[in-house]
Amino acid sequence: MNIFWLLFVSLLPGLLWVYFFYRKDRYEPEPAALVLKAFIYGALAVVPVGFIETPFARSISNPSNLFILLLLTIGVIGIVEEFAKFAVIRYTIYNSEEFDEPVDGIIYSVSAGLGFAALENLLYTYVFGFQVGLIRAVITSLVHASFSGIMGYYLGKAKIEKQPSLIYKGLILVIILHGVYDFLIMSGLVSNYIVYSMVGLFYVYLIMLINRAVEASPFK
């Protein structure tokens, strides 16, 4: 597969999703350069995540029982991936003066999640083909955006309301959601229709949080 098609089903959908969510910030849109930086940071996070998760790959793909699989999807995939996406925002853009309203946490975190998904999708497309890449461009991108955006909501509230404990609440929530979601897919316990319904629910919840954060904007 040539580089054009790889980028077409990985990078382009990721950037289009970023633009879609970016438009939700109606009152004081963030600098495009910072949003793009968050996207790049998220993509770069795939590298350390890959190194950390690789030793567990065999156990995850061939677990001895469902309980072990659940422990691995939450304790490895959920923790490692969600903490990585959280960290690239918390220890960089979070400290910027531009991060000055609750919805900012969502926008930057969603962008990081979509960057992560874009590079991950590029790798999957290269290995498994164009059709897999197209599916992941929609489903996987939206899932990563949703998990990261939910975390970002709590991150934004934590900064604006000066309640650091909200960060832990958000991080724990998305780690569990991510782990359980992956567990249901990998275990084969649910049909694809249930999976797609879950993705839809994550998205609806994210939109609710975005609307709530936008209405709380001091720039209304």
From TrEMBL:
UniProtKB keywords: Cell membrane, Hydrolase, Membrane, Protease, Transmembrane, Transmembrane helix
Coiled coil ranges: none
Thylakoid recorded as keyword: no
Intracellular or extracellular location(s): Cell membrane
Protein name: Protease PrsW
Record bears the keyword Transmembrane helix: yes
Top-rank taxon: Bacteria
Major place of residence: membrane
Species annotation: Orenia marismortui
Pfam family, one: PrsW-protease
GO MF, any single term: peptidase activity
UniProt xrefs under InterPro entries: Peptidase_PrsW_arch/bac (IPR023596), PrsW (IPR026898)
